[in-house]
């Protein structure tokens, strides 16, 4: 198509990007016709823009714009040839020869594909002729090779990449398939997108490169290509597919979905959510008649932001095939757009009926790309290279009310619209804007406006490799698979996960514990052996009861202090022993209640010193019996030890040593109140930290040492004459005492929390009761129930009492 001009013209390369020689059977030829339909809409938009400029005397006064259209046939050789032909038009091809009308060329509008535009730039760059591209290209390649030649009427593609990522994140699609055209643009797309996928927790189930040109003549090669793409396309997972490419990419993909495949036995109508880049969005309209496009129902596409252009729809209504002779494409366009045919003597049957030329659009895609150029400048003597600084600094409002300007990289600002494809039963469709992504406004999506593919029953599709791990579980990576594929493992003890799909469980704070489902942390309860709880009440009652019994025994002994049975075996030691046992029962109360500084400092030292006095008294009584027996022998030197002095010395010295140990303990590392956060999962244990465990066990060890000595002496003296012998009862008492405290050590170590305290209280009470019962119960029995036996003569005659 050629538009005549007066002063200036613009070259358009190309309008059709396909290689006819590479397309053969399977109904693919219909694509060629359909592609013309979409590209013709681009031409109509350009015609409208040029007419608007030419008809407005205030835009370019005394200047009329025109344009030529050239076809590259999707071939590098043809692209170079047509570009040179545009520059050096003549009857014969003469490079660097300019004649007449061609001197008016000021700029070139490139094609949709990056390769075609780059080939054009290779020719234009030496002549400093600017190229305006309206296709979306990989920015890195442009900036490094053709930065001085390109002015892109599209935003930076990086916005589109981030829009894809944000769309996936918004709907939770972490398992996606990626199809990309096998060229530089596709390689850049993959290298840019894949790091963002990983960074946002998204995995690509597969990445397939679609050949830029399918060599359809070789059937084996054709089916190899189909197999490489067909099988992953029809798998149930993933449900979300990303597609990057151009016109031939979508053609091949549609062919693949149309043809049956011998290796695939599944359901060929598996529902998918497609996410398409802007290049595919531009050319998708041409597929309406070729195949059933229900496969793309609900697809998302990123399209360059557009706005309704005033007057354009009215312009389209004025176009009729019979009145527009200069447009050689309009007839084909009309037949495809309205499914009709113009009369042809060679055809007897007309698909869809005859065209009248009066048909009007219905359900046609109204999206167009409008590029308007113009400023109040004199262009009569303008050279192409002089347009470069003008384009670099251009900024104006077009007739749609939007600001047009290029940034430092030769890109137009703005962003991308996110459209949702709604396909009707008659194969017509409508693209509904459901969101946008731009540098200024960020990512915006309106979920209520989205129509999902029919296979998802209008619910939001799920595209994940593994089902979500619920709260209380963590993701456990599957060996040899991508990080999006995982099993779910229950959080370990002490940890929780309060969200879905957590990579690791969180440790609860020290003062909190995990719930049963391990999905939240509850505050721990402060626990200690309280006076009010049943166990505490029982221990208090036992301690009070035996304290009362001990006091009664002491009172009985004091009342009967002059009787032989009380005077035997040192009356004063019995008093000290009874008072010490009373204090033992009472000191157990220091272990009850919430620990504080006073109770923590007093409880263990008091317990250690008082029990040392008790054992010292028992040992003194036993040694007194032995010494008294030995002193009865004629000429014995032991008589000087008989009396109170020996017993008092034993009690004082043994108690002094234990007191010294306790003083050193309190002076160096005294006990203190503490909180145990870890022993119990759901409790904070209030306890007394012993300060120095060594000193604590040293106190116990010294008590054990005294007890062993007492037991040994008592055991050896158990067969002495009965009048002087208390050793049998002391032997039983010390045997019981040692058994209790030997059992105490492992039991104390194996319990936690308040039960440790209960074990120690029980040991104190049990050993005290054993000493009280074994040593004093026989004497009390005689004093109370057999007073007639409490006589010296009777005691002398008795073998035992």
Can you describe this structure?
With 801 residues, this protein is of the alpha/beta class. The protein folds into four domains: 1-154 and 313-411, Rossmann fold, CATH 3.40.50.2300; 156-305 and 414-465, 3-Layer(aba) Sandwich (Rossmann fold), CATH 3.40.50.2300; 473-523, no CATH class; 534-797, Rhodopsin 7-helix transmembrane proteins (Rhopdopsin 7-helix transmembrane proteins, Up-down Bundle). It is 42% helix and 14% strand. Strands 7-6-8-9-10-13-14-15 form an eight-stranded mixed β-sheet, with helices on both faces. A five-stranded parallel β-sheet has the order 2-1-3-4-5, with helices on both faces. The protein is rod-shaped and about 155 Å long. The chain starts with 7 loop residues before the first strand and ends with a helix.
What CATH calls the topology of the largest domain is: Rhopdopsin 7-helix transmembrane proteins
**CATH-level-4 superfamily name of the largest domain:** Rhodopsin 7-helix transmembrane proteins
**CATH top level class name of the largest domain:** Mainly Alpha
Tell me the helix content.
40-55%
Tell the overall outline. rod-shaped
Rounded Rg: 51 Å
Number of helices: 21
Strand order of the largest sheet: 7-6-8-9-10-13-14-15
Topology, number of strands: 24
Please report the distance between the alpha carbons of the first and last residues: 138 Å
Largest sheet: 8 strands, mixed
From the helix content, strand content and strand pairing, which structural class follows?
alpha/beta
Overall pLDDT metric: 76
> What's the structural domain tally?
4
Strand residue percentage: 5-15%
What is the oligomer described by this structure?
single chain
Poorly predicted tracts of residues: 1-9, 13-36, 264-268, 282-288, 363-372, 374-379
CATH architecture of the largest domain: Up-down Bundle
